[in-house]
Here is the input.
Amino acid sequence: MSIEQLESIAQAMVAPGKGIIAIDESNSTIKKRFDAVGIECSEENRRAYREMLLTTPSLGEHISGAILYDETIRQKTKAGVPFTKVMLDAGILPGIKVDKGPQPLAGFPGEVVTEGLDGLRERLNEYARLGAKFAKWRAVITIGEDSPSGTCIEANCHALARYAALCQEAGIVPMVEPEILMDGDHDLEACYDVTEVTLRSLFGSLYEQNVMLEGTILKASMIISGKSCAQQASADEVAEATVRCLKASVPALLPGIVFLSGGQSDRDATAHLNAMNQMGPHPWPLSFSYGRAMQSAALKIWGGDIVANVAEAQKMVHARARDNGMAALGKWRG
Ligand code: 13P
Here is the structure.
């Protein structure tokens, strides 16, 4: 695939007023979400839940793509239509999570490095055959007393860049996600500093591995106060710090940046994105790739009755997509 084709997929992912729904929870993560609403984590329930999400009427109005999990990209609707076909018919690009999750980083207690490079070329080729147009790899950085170490940042960014190069070789747009966790009592400034160092390291690694930025999307975490920090920054402070940090570390050539929600409330995730876009124009479209902030409210409704509440849950999915789509334009009215 040519760079122009990768570029046009990347641009479609961040089309004006559109963003991504992340439904790529591993089976152990979706079990936690199902447990919270009292739903058994069986393969059929996972399939039914993802069918509810992906068949939301008019989802494509505000959603450009969905990130799936290995099990999900192979699944079909109850009527036997592959999820990937449902998505393409709705104008939604299929994406796939390809990392194998974070593992303890040897020699650095408490820090993790994301694994999954072994066999990745073969897996990407299979996902491309199954219809994946983009992929996601998430690195996890924790802010603590003595962390993150430079080694942790470099190891994760190196892996992200190796993954991104393999994606482009397979004709798949890499979404590179270095997530700085919200956990901790650090302030906004500490989050800014760690994010800036991480993003600079990431773009250095992408350059070293010959990754074409024109065909790459960044999935970033926002600059926010740690969850247990006494002083919580306002929406305007979050927006200002996040945009400043991105401008200091992300090349303008990148086609777009999408944010994860990371445990923020639905309202905060939308309000922060909206505030950033009201400060625009910026060098790149700023949009969303939310998991929890797209799904939580709908999952609660669906969990109440997984057969009778499908339409009601879908209305909530559409409402969250519309709110976040408006925030991607800076036009959300609250
Ligand atoms: P959250 O929006 O729930 O953080 O999930 C996004 C995601 O894909 C994390 O990798």
In short: The chain has a mean pLDDT of 98. DSSP finds twelve helices and ten strands in the chain.
